[in-house]
Amino acid sequence: MSSSSLPRCPQCTSEFTYEDGNLYICPECAHGWSKDASAEEAESKQAIRDAVGNELQDDDTVTVIKDLKVKGSSLVVKMGTKVKNIRLVAGDHDIDCKIDGIGAMQLKSQFVKKA
């Protein structure tokens, strides 16, 4: 099996994984995981959805559906603000983005809708 068809390491995202019996091994961080766990992980990944249930993907454009205070400053992201080229990330604030006039920040998908 060529290395391009093997999954990336879930710890360090290295593309240089290799098979060893029923395991995948990462030579860069020495992490090992079972082939079965890798298949289950891919199936269990939940799609990130916006406030109205549309599935979001990287590079989508979204619109903020309510005024959001920016923590640690007096700035407010106003309702109706369009945010282009979002990046989906794991965690509570699952959207990484850059908003004109404010800068880089993270948003919760429940406060946006796909444009």
Automatic annotation (TrEMBL):
Classification of source organism: Bacteria, Pseudomonadati, Pseudomonadota, Gammaproteobacteria, Steroidobacterales
Protein name: Alkylphosphonate utilization protein
Domain Protein YjdM C-terminal: 48-115
Pfam families: YjdM, Zn_Ribbon_YjdM
SUPFAM superfamilies per record: Prokaryotic SH3-related domain, Zinc beta-ribbon
Domain Protein YjdM N-terminal: 5-34
Natural source organism: Steroidobacter denitrificans
Gene3D superfamilies, A to Z: 2.20.25.10, SH3 Domains
Superkingdom to which the source organism belongs: Bacteria
Family note: Belongs to the YjdM family.
